[in-house]
Amino acid sequence: MTESGSATSPAGRQKSAEYFRFVERDGVDWDAWWDVLCGRVAGAVFRGALSPDVCERTCRRFWSSPLLTSPNATRSTERAVGPLLLASDTLDGYLAESERTRVGLADICGDRGRTLPALLDEWRAHLAGRGVRFRLAQHEGRQAGAFKIRSRADSESFGLLPHDDAMHSWLLPHLVGFEIQDVQRVCNALVCLENGPGGELLYWNAAFSQEDRKTLGIRPDSYGYPLEALSGVDRITLPIHAGDMYIFDGGNVHAVAPSGTEHVRRTVALWITGPLSDGTVLQWA
Question: Which regions in the chain score pLDDT beneath 70?
């Protein structure tokens, strides 16, 4: 659902109605996924990409994993397995966490059926048919993490504050020299494993530049935009259900709506992806 407003943001940050939309499909449509990566449309959602059985099995293994941690001291409901580059203090620490959790994440998500690793293999084959290479981002011979699994339960506040991921990827000091800073477009990719009421993706037609962030008093390592900066900006509210896979332009401001109850978990596998100028598509978590 798109909610229209009288945009107060500079015109340069607003994109056309043809672009600012989500393509919705029953099942996976890799051509639509490719269109998001190429910047032709803001996002795409594929309903039922993972079956209920695969989601249930993956969640069961996640919640019983010895790798499960509580990474956020200010958010008591958060649990996670895997690395998260933008929240890491150093690139070396991120790469070490990627290596430490790689096998465990594969064990959680693998096995029979059309699992997340199987979907990523399909995507790799689709890109190969286009003559495009798909690989994990690398730094000095070490590979990034493929994805992370994270769960949160937030009854009243945002599950995630309004933010973008592109500016962080390009501005955080500890990422200098990492090849992800060379991608032409930063796209967020997720698969929902469990979710109750609420927990929608909120997506605004606003992309803040480095100059905008300075005007708002936001440092490169700051997280979250004030709601006043988004007043009157068109917004899409996208319901998300277990089994759905979705991708969107991470340069636009987005957030996760509260679940409405602290007893509901919103668990997702997530990663970031983007194309290099040589036609290679990178993936990292």
Answer: 1-13, 73-76, 154-156, 168, 171, 220-222, 260-262
β-pairing, 201-204 vs 235-238, is: antiparallel
Angle subtended at Cα 137 by Cα 135 and Cα 141, rounded to the nearest 5 degrees: 105
Q: Which domain holds residue 79?
A: 2-8+15-277
Asked if the structure places residue 130 within a domain, the reply is yes
Residue 257, domain member (yes or no): yes
Reduced 3-state DSSP string for 30-94: HHHHHHHHCCCCCEEEEECCCCHHHHHHHHHHHHHCCCCECCCCCCCCCEEECCCHHHCCCHHHH
With a CB cutoff of 8 Å and minimum separation 6, the contacts of 137 are 143, 144, 178, 179, 180, 282, 283, 284
The pLDDT of residue 227: 87
pLDDT value of position 4:
59
* C-beta neighbour count of 12 within 10 angstroms: 9
Asked if residue 282 belongs to a domain, the reply is no
Tokens of 138: 């690398």
Give domain status of residue 284, yes or no.
Answer: no
pTM assigned to the model: 0.91
Q: Which residues, including other chains, have CB under 8 Å from residue 88's CB and lie 6 or more apart? A: 94, 97, 174
End-to-end CA distance of the chain: 28
- The CATH number of the domain where 83 resides is what? 2.60.120
pLDDT on residue 114: 95
